Design the sequence.
């Protein structure tokens, strides 16, 4: 343009800035604005809004806020797009209270707040655990007759679940059903999971019934939550019934479903059933992962089946699943309980030689084992080398050593 002696204006240069911002090159956008000022061309609201949007897109929210504040100070009137961009940025920063204040400023300046502005701020408040403030905005929306969508309902449902306000959630859910709000399977799964974790299995089952009445099929996640809820209540017979129901309904269990059942059986000291489900899992073609092996190893070790644990450990490696420090910690702890001092020490020192990063938990298991066996010199020696191995002792490490000398 310069070579062709075509004159620049704010529109053409703002378009160029927008191109750079869309390419993620915000710095070049600011360079163009610098050139604009040198040419005596004043940026307008569109120019500055484009740069604010570019900064937010790159995660530079603080810089975007500074530019916005400077823009207002210099007398520019931000447009709706600018405000929405800043609202989104503030909520992403976790500064939802400031976003609420900005919402009020928008109203004062004559902007008509829509569902986009409200949903952004409600989502931000929910994520910042400010449920009361989020519900106030929700009521405000209803009072203004602004249509409510599933996104807003889902945000509030998730926040109520996270804060354990399940009684309030049931009332909210009934309101939704009365208002003919169609929930999706993801939202229903959030609800089912929350009630199951609180031990409210009957309410969770009622939600599943509502879900089915509305023509939404429960999926593997729904069944997994119900199974997990029964396992938390130590009702393995009920958990198994749900597991079998899932298969009968044509919903194939995944490795998470099997892991939940195996963990439930281990926690209720029914190792034979845990092993049975492990075999079923392998036969079904599901891949046993690190979590599966850690659950079963922990169950075997806690019940003194060290030989079985070692066999499983070798099988795990044979199947191409590389153990991590968690699995070694489980084995070491199991060996301490079984009084297998020599094997435990060999495994510990082999880990050090292998170059695996030993955690403070690993050292605490070992020092605690030495102290309980009256091997205080060995415990002190291990405690001293922790720092040399870039593993600082924690409060438990000191408590173990103090208890050992009492």
Sequence:
């Amino acid at each position: 343009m310069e070579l062709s002696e075509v004159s620049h204006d704010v529109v053409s240069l703002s378009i160029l800035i927008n191109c750079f911002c869309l390419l993620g090159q915000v710095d070049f956008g600011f360079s163009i604005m610098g050139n604009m000022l040198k040419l005596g061309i004043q940026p307008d609201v569109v120019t500055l809004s484009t740069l604010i949007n570019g900064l937010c897109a790159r995660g530079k929210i603080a810089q975007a806020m500074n530019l916005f504040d400077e823009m207002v100070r210099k007398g520019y009137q931000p447009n709706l797009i600018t405000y929405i961009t800043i609202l989104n940025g503030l909520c992403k920063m976790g500064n939802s209270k400031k976003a609420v204040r900005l919402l009020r400023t928008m109203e004062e300046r004559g902007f008509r707040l829509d569902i986009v502005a409200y949903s952004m701020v409600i989502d931000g408040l929910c994520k910042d655990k400010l449920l009361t403030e989020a519900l106030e905005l929700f009521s405000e929306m209803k009072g203004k007759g602004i249509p409510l969508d599933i996104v807003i309902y889902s945000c509030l449902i998730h926040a109520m679940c996270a804060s354990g306000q399940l009684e309030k959630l049931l009332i909210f859910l009934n309101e939704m059903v009365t208002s003919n709000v169609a929930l999706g399977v993801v939202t229903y799964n959030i609800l089912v999971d929350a009630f199951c974790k609180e031990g409210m299995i009957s309410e969770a089952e009622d939600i599943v019934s509502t879900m089915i009445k509305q023509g939404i099929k429960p999926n593997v996640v729904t069944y997994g939550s119900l199974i997990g809820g029964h396992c938390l209540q130590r009702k393995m017979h009920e958990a198994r019934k749900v597991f079998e129901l899932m298969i009968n309904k044509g919903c194939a269990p995944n490795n998470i479903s099997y892991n939940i059942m195996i963990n439930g059986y281990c926690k209720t000291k029914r190792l034979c059933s845990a092993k049975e489900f492990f075999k079923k899992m392998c036969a079904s073609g599901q891949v046993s992962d690190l979590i599966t092996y850690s659950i079963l190893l922990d169950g075997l070790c806690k019940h003194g089946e060290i030989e079985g644990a070692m066999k499983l450990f070798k099988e795990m490696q044979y199947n191409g699943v590389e153990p991590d420090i968690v699995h070694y910690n489980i084995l070491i702890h199991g060996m301490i309980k079984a009084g297998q001092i020599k094997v435990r020490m060999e495994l510990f020192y082999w880990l050090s030689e292998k170059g695996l990063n030993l955690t403070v938990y690993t050292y605490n298991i070992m020092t605690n084992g030495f102290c309980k066996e009256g091997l205080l010199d060995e415990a002190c020696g291990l405690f001293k080398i922790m720092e040399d191995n870039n593993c600082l002792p924690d409060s438990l490490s000191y408590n173990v050593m103090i208890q050992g000398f009492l």
